[in-house]
Structures are given as C-alpha cells and as structure tokens.
Write the structure tokens for this entry.
Amino acid sequence: MAKQRSRRRRGPRLLDLPGIWLGQHWQTALETLGRLKENPLPSAMTVAVIGISLALPAALYVMTDNLRTMAGGWDQTAAISLFLRFETDDTHAKRLSQDLATWSEISRVHLITREQALEEFRALGGFEEALEEITKNPLPIVLAIYPTPTYSTPELLEGLQDKLLKLPEADFARMDTLWLQRFQAILDLVQSGSLLLGLLLGIGVLLIVGNTIRLEILNRRIEIEIMELVGATAAFIRRPFLYAGAWYGLLGGATAWLLVTISVLLLQQPVSRLASLYRSEFQLSGLGFAATGVTLGASVLLGLIGSWIAVNRHLRGAEPQ
C-alpha cells in the first residue's frame, strides 16, 4: 500500500501533460482577457487604433474586389465593333460574319442587324420623341468581333482592326476593350498601393502593440521581479504578455472586419441607386470567409510579434537588483 501511495505522489502521468499544458495556457488567456477588461478605456482605445489601421487596407481590398467583379461583366463586350457600309444588307452581312469567324485571329462574331440596333437604342430610353420622328432606320449593321485570347493584346488588336478596315464592306471600326484594359491597369495599381499601405500600417500595429506591452511590463515590474525571485522561467513570465498581444490583435482584427462590413452595408443603397440608373443591378460584397480569416490571422500574428519584441527587449531590464 505504501508503494502504491508513493507512486501516486510522483506527479501526473506523461499522457496527462498535454492536457495540463493546454489548461495552463487557457487559464492564462482568460486571465489576460480579464486584465484587459479591468482597464476598458485604454484597452478600447488600443483596439480601436489597431482596428482602424487594419480596416484601411481591408477596405481598399474590398473596393478593388468589387470593381473587378463589376469589370468581369464588361469583359463580355466585343473587342472590336465593325460598322458596315449602309448599303450592305443582312444577307451579305451574315455571309461576311461567317467568313470572319473562320479567321485564326477571331474566336466568334456576333451580328447585330439594323432592327436589333434600333431596339437596343430604344431600350436606353430618353430618345422616344426623336425615334418617333424617324421614318427610316439610320443605324448600320454592326459585327461584334471577339478575338482569341492570343490576340487580345492592344498591339495585336490594332493590327486586326487595320485588317478588318481593308474589307470592302467595312465603314469604320471601334475598339471596345482598350478602356477596360486601362481600367484593369488602374485596379492593379490600386491593389499594389493597398498592399504597400497594409505593410506600412502593419508596422504601425507592431509599434502600437509593442508600446502597449512595454507600458504593461513597466506597470508590472515589481510582480515580474517577485516571479523571478521564486524561480519562474522566462517563458512563464512572457506568456501573459504574448496573450495580451494576441488579444489586442484579435480584437483589432474583429473591429476592422466590423468597420468594413458596416461600410459595405451603408454604401449598398447608393450603389444600387446608381446601378438602377443604368438599368442594372450590383450587389456589393464584403470580406469573404478567406479574406476574414486572413485579416484575423494577420492581426493576431502582428499582435504576437509586437508583444514578443517588446517582452524580449524590456524583460531583461526587469531583472531584480
């Protein structure tokens, strides 16, 4: 019986150690969160600054993502609109469209007859009185040219346009995708700027968390000295400060998500009103599941890194004299 009691007093079994380790970390995380609640105003100000810093690049990402989605519908427009001479009839135009569809540079050709063009023009609205005065359809036949992906560059499109203008039936042509390519280039520039802004603001978050943890270390200097005197390890002393940085990052990331979501909801009605003027509909999208996970993960990581830097730098100065 004495041997059995001595075995029981030796300590926890090896299989119990992971549970004990997780329990200690969970307890430290809850205690750290409780410390943040004890100082609501300073904690809320720190979280708000972190949230605003992270919300700016996140809002730029949401803006460019919605603009790319909107431009995705514009990709369906023809690259070149070939306007035929007025004396060209529908039969001749249909035969020409079939011939052009066999070209290696062209993926497909869509024929827009005079009647279809007039109906589209009438559907735009605002020209009802002028159309009533028209006795003869003045619109020409249009061939919407869709090139193959290999001929979608501006240089090749210009060469294809010059080739099409040499046709005897061609009157003039218009390139419809150059503005879209310029728009995509502007979006790429905005996206690069948002990444740079996110990097700069991420450094700002590191400084904010690091300074906050530094002040907390100074306020708990005596407590840290007592823990070192009783033999506490550096990892044990460092643990609550790391969790404090993680909480600041997590709450800041959640605040950034909330700010972006509220902004999207507030802008949805004006965007819908603007889209209705163009007889269209567009639904704004916020931060998706993946983007939300990246935002929260990055914010927690920034909080951990900032607190780690602050602890490693200032914990050495907290050694007992």
About this structure: The chain has a mean pLDDT of 78. The first helix runs from residue 2 to 8. Residues 78 and 251 are 47 Å apart (CA to CA). The chain is about 70% helix and 5% strand.
